[in-house]
Amino acid sequence: MVIIKAKDYEDMSKRAAALLAEQIAQKPDSVLGLATGSTPVGAYRELAEKFRRKELSFSKVKTVNLDEYVGLLPEHEQSYRYFMQKHLFGLVDIKPENTHIPDGMAKNIRHACREYDALIDSLGGIDLQLLGIGHNGHIGFNEPAKVFEKETHVVELKESTIAANARFFSSPGAVPRRAVTMGILSIMRAKRILLLASGADKAEIVKEAFFGPITPAVPASVLQLHPAATVIADGEALKECKTL
Ligand code: F6R
Q: pTM for this structure?
């Protein structure tokens, strides 16, 4: 695992966008695994800017998002489909049919989960998976647990995750209780992983996840086993990692 210390959020976002752009330059039909949340917004802004400057095209890129809330329509402002449209897809030349997000509205959600893994396989797997990290160490919506859940599945969100995400909703009661997420194996199968972390509130978990034991109690810790994982984190997020 390579850990890169960025100066601040802007620097982290620029470095992340450079790495993603390089991936697309090397393989224009790359399959990108994408994340939502506040952390990657700056990287998406940089990518959209590179597209605007004609330095980058997404015309052959395919994307698979990590997760989606159960029960939110794609048009709902807090759905992850809406987020992706707003922060990236709507700003670049990606083909809508090449963008994939788990279907939180599926009638048979377990079947939809199996189909999502089959879809990732049919695309040839993920070339580069972008991740954020939750305060409890979750990646995607893989919450702390006794075992690593392997495949795409439905999760009951932890109260801490609901509380953290309540800032995007009118009230904590409006936050969906369930979500669909890629599993740990679905994530670990990606050829490369790029995890971003920013801010002092992530400092404790960054230290625990990347310098502590590998355990499903801290799902992101499994990334220590990935052969090509990079973490780009700003000074604040790395402040508890004294050796960096
Ligand atoms: C989002 C996702 C989550 C977030 C994590 C951090 O698709 O999978 O794991 O990456 O909750 O969220 P932020 O970036 O808002 O701190």
A: 0.96
Q: Which of 12, 44, 66, 158 to mutate to test the pocket of ligand 1 (most atoms within 8 A of CB)?
A: 66
Task: Reply yes or no on whether 111 is catalytic.
Answer: no
Question: Given pLDDT bands bounded at 50, 70 and 90, which one contains residue 206?
Answer: very high
Q: How far apart are CA 110 and CA 219, in angstroms?
A: 22
pLDDT at 242: 81
Residue-wise pLDDT tens digits, 152-198: 999 999 898 899 888 888 888 899 999 999 999 999 999 999 999 99
Which region, left, alpha or beta, applies to residue 54 given φ > 0 means left and ψ of -120 to 50 means alpha?
Answer: left
Cα-based angle 100, 11, 25 (whole degrees, multiple of 5): 50
Give the residue from 135, 137, 146, 119 showing the smallest Cα distance to 201: 135
Amino acid letter, 11: D
The DSSP output letter for 142 is B
Asked whether residue 122 carries a pLDDT value surpassing 80, the answer given is yes
Q: Are 212 and 184 in contact (CB under 8 A)?
A: no
Determine whether the shortest distance from the Cβ of 237 to ligand 1 is under 6 A: no
183 lines ligand 1 (CB under 6 A): no
Can you spell out the DSSP letters for 168-227?
Answer: GSSSGGGS-SEEEE--HHHHHTSSEEEEEE-SGGGHHHHHHHHHS---TTSGGGGGGG-T
